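Researcher: Good morning. I'm working through a list of sequences from a screen, and I'd like to move beyond sequence-only analysis. For each chain I'm collecting a predicted structure so we can compare shapes side by side. This is the next one on the list. No need for commentary yet; just the structure.
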Amino acid sequence: MAMKRALKAVINRASPRIIPRLRFLQGLLHHSPPPLKAVALYRVSRYFWVRGHRILARHYENLLYYRCGCTISCEAEIGEGVWFPHPTGIVIGKGSILGRNVTVYQSVTLGRKDRTVSDYPRIGDDVTIYPGSVVIGAIVVGKGTTIGANSVVLADTEENSVYAGVPARRLR
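Model: Good morning. Structure tokens for this chain:
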């Protein structure tokens, strides 16, 4: 009950223009397929985070986890055109940066190597990351790169190339 009161207080402080959009988005989020729902919930969560509504941002981040089975931090920066065809199991850490038109398949992890270091990956534009891949540390994945299934990327990648393996190596 306390959470409900806290959410109402944040909504009441928000501008009157947000309320109709919020109701529209809630309807959209309850009746849409998981890929659309995952992107929409992240966008709503990020919207509130950027505007300082931390409680609402975390609420939608948790809703994303319960509705789609993925953990995408509202603190991560994700560009336009991102797509999660099968969002189950995706983990995107709070400092990760994804470019435009990135496709991330199920069970992909983008995060830091160690708890003591907060270095997260930067994913370039037009990148495809296939299922089960792990991209960790302060690395840069170049524009147009494809990362194969179940790969572990620990170093920077070149643009317009294909990486696969454990640890990931350039294939072409």
